[in-house]
Every structure is written in structure tokens, then in C-alpha cells.
Amino acid sequence: MGAAADNHEEESSPLLPAAVSAAIPADEKPPQAPALAPEATKLYADGVPVVMGEPVAAHAIPRESWSSGILSCLGRNDEFCSSDLEVCLLGSVAPCVLYGSNVERLAAGQSTFANNCLPYTGLYMLGNSLFGWNCLAPWFSHPTRTAIRRRYNLEGSFEAFTRQCGFCGGLVEDEERREHLEVACDLATHYLCHPCALCQEGRELRRRVPHPGFNNGRSVFVMMPPMEQTMGRGM
């Protein structure tokens, strides 16, 4: 009786009926799945670790530097050298084309080139005709810089300035205040160095994101129709 009571007290398997599970000895029951460790439940969203639905503090992941400086107009001597020269030419002659291309890459095909190039062109012409300089388009284009910085966890202008100068470290540690200052610095960068900012963003995106119009290196299988067949007379 005591052994039978012990068998009934054992936890039954959820995959077996209660009567069958109670009849199986404790040493023959399938082992229970081990509980996951807290580290195993960690997920990632856009490169930021998330635990139990809450993102881990951003300072846990060190922010990366931009692939090129804002004044590196000619880019770097690497495999993207020709692309950097194209970006420099577009930023100097046709910034509207460069801005439309940047947003098209960032949106991964969800936003068309014309939907971004045409509004920028209108603001560019309006600012130059009314105020004599391009003062309206930077207000329209600076959110793209913020989106690039957040998506790829890049170091902002304010954080880079405080790291080099060694003061205002408390503002960098406060994520909310730091982000407000970084957005203001993104706007100031586009107003003070607008062509250079567009070129830096273009170089960064071309190193990270292929053009949405390309096939991204995937193989293409083309099915050819069967050739015309004729029946020959046997010998």
C-alpha cells in the first residue's frame, strides 16, 4: 500500500492519461524538461537584448563609431572607394538625389526614391529662393541621421564630443537626456555641415545595406521552355 501511494504521489506526465501515468513506476517515467536559465530567455530586437519584454540598458552594448568621419569627403581607400566618390559627387551637385537614395536604402524598399527626393527638392528650392541658402531641407532630412544612428547603434556627435573632451559624463550615462541631446546634435550637424552629413550617411548605408533594387547576391533560376522536338522515322 505504501509503494502504491508513493507511485500516485509522483507527478504524472502531461502527455499520458492519468491512469496510465500512475501505473508507470517512477524510475521509468520520461524525464521532465529542465527549466530554462534566465540567460536562455534573452532575445534580441534590432541588436538590443531584451529580457522578459524589457530592453537591457543601452550602455550594456558599446556603441560603434561611424565607418568614416564627417569630413572624409572622399571616403576610404577600400572596396567602396568608387562608391564613396559617387557619394561625394552627389552630395556636392545633387543632394536631393543622395538623400532619396539614402532613405530608399534605409527603408529597404518600403519607401520609394521619388517620395523622398521630390519633397527635399521642393524645400531646397524654396529655401534658396526665399532665404538665399538651403535652410529648410536640413530640417526635413535630419531624422534620417537619427534613424541610422539608432538602427546600427552608432555613436552620436554629443557622446563623441564628451569622450574626447572628458566632461559631461553624467549626461551620457542618462540615456533619455543623452538621446535628446543627440537628436539636437543631429539637427545641428545637418544645418552646419549639411552636404558632409548626407555624404557620411550615404557612405555608412552603402557599407551596410545593399541597394533594394539589386538582388542581394541571391541566385536566379530561369526556366527555359523545352526545345521543339520532331519525331524521326526509325530505320
Q: List unreliable stretches of 5+ residues.
A: 5-13, 36-45
Amino- and carboxy-terminal Cα gap: 91 Å
**Structural class determined from secondary elements:** mainly alpha
Lateral strand order in the biggest sheet: 1-2-3
**Could you tell me the number of beta strands?**
3
Count of runs of 4 or more consecutive helical residues: 10
Shape, per Cα inertia axes: globular
Helix content: 40-55%
Portion in strands:
under 5%
Rounded radius of gyration (Å): 30 Å
Mean pLDDT: 77
Structural notes for this entry:
It comes from Panicum hallii. InterPro entries: PLAC_motif_containing. It is found in: Membrane. 51% of the residues lie in helices and 4% in strands. With 235 residues, it is mainly alpha-helical. It has a domain of 150 residues. Strands 1-2-3 form a three-stranded antiparallel beta sheet, with no helix packed on it. The longest helix is centred in the middle third of the chain and has 19 residues. It is globular. The termini are far apart.
